[in-house]
Design a protein that fits this description.
The structure holds two protein chains of two kinds.
Chain A (H helix, E strand, L loop, with lengths): L2 H12 L7 H9 L3 H13 L3 E8 L7 E7 L6 H9 L4 E7 L5 E7 L2 H15 L4 E3 L4 E5 L6
Antiparallel strand pairs in A: 2-4, 2-5, 3-4
Chain B lengths: L5 H10 L9 H9 L3 H14 L2 E8 L8 E7 L6 H9 L4 E6 L10 E7 L2 H15 L4 E12 L8
Antiparallel strand pairs in B: 2-4, 2-5, 3-4
Helix pairs in contact in B: 2-3
Classes of the chains: A alpha+beta, B alpha+beta.
């Protein structure tokens, strides 16, 4: 990744133009050709630096519910439990963390009932009783942006 | 709640597949949906205005960039100080998420945030600064040991 790649990433993370020729617009801002921009983006996607170029929707406005779930899993069972959790398409993040509560995952589903059902299912399938639903009470910030 | 029509849902399903690397990407998407390019562009811009689209851009894999460290920090914040603390934490560029959440058994932490930094030291510096500014000394850093899953949500797919 060189300096130009970083500039491209900084611009394209923030605001993708919604207009007929978005890549040409970005290229003009960066003073490069549209061809070079498209080629560099292709490489950045192939090398997995860019996960995807697409809008981030506000789940709440689409009628969806989200939550964070914490689990306390015996060390030797963490991987097995993580795999059971990962099967659910409604699970968007799943992380092992250094703490007594060592498995943390996020769920986005079409209703609170669906969220509770999935949590109950996971409890049943894994046999882990220590599973806690932590839906947010107040949102202070959500904006993922890496300044490069 | 904002009304989402059946056509909106079809548009959202197409958009979440990703924007193609083509000179006129919205024309490609509009053709797939059998609608006009200018109608699609107008509708997406409305989604941005009404908040259905929170942000439009590229999503990065942070560990492929300089941002290797990713820590969840939880804070034990007195009720009356929650808003000011949440708002202060939200101002940091390195903080991507900040929420008030319920407390857990033996875990009295009610404010959760995600911090992304280039290394552990940089993250700790920010955490100590926040602790200093807010005078909240009871907090825990839950360092990421392993990422098992990270995907974008998929809406309206049956």
């Amino acid at each position: 990744m060189d300096e130009l790649d970083k500039k491209i990433l900084n611009v394209i993370q923030e605001n993708f133009p919604v207009s007929p020729y978005p890549y040409a617009e970005i290229a003009t801002t960066l003073r490069i050709s549209e061809e070079e921009l498209l080629w560099r983006l292709k490489v950045l996607i192939e090398t997995e630096v860019i996960r995807e170029i697409s809008p981030v929707f506000f789940s709440k406005h689409l009628g969806y519910k989200s939550t964070l779930v914490a689990m306390e899993v015996p060390q030797e069972k963490v991987l097995e439990v993580a795999e059971i959790i990962n099967i659910y398409p409604q699970v968007t993040h799943n992380y092992r963390r250094k703490h007594k509560y060592n498995l943390w995952f996020t769920l986005i589903a079409s209703s609170d009932e669906e969220i509770l059902k999935i949590i109950e299912e996971i409890k049943f399938k894994t046999g882990i009783e220590k599973i806690f639903n932590l839906p947010y009470k107040k949102l202070f910030k959500i904006n993922v942006n890496f300044s490069l | 709640m904002i009304e989402v029509t059946d056509l909106d849902k079809k548009i959202i399903i197409e958009l979440q597949k990703g924007i193609p690397l083509e000179s006129r990407p919205f024309k490609v998407i509009a053709d797939n949906l059998n609608i006009k390019e200018d109608f699609l562009i107008e509708r997406i811009n409305e989604f941005k205005k009404n908040g259905i689209i929170r942000r439009f851009g590229a999503r990065l894999r942070h560990y492929k960039t300089e941002y290797k460290e990713n820590i969840m920090i939880v804070w034990n914040v007195p009720e009356e100080q929650l808003c000011s603390t949440g708002n202060l934490i939200a101002k940091y560029l390195q903080i991507s998420h900040c929420y008030e959440r319920p407390v857990l058994p033996d875990f009295p932490y009610n404010l959760y945030c995600m911090l992304h930094g280039k290394n552990r030291e940089e993250c700790i510096k920010i955490i100590e600064e926040i602790s200093e500014l807010t005078n909240i000394k009871d907090y825990k850093m839950l360092v990421t040991v392993e990422e098992y899953k990270k995907i974008s949500p998929e809406y309206f797919i049956k």
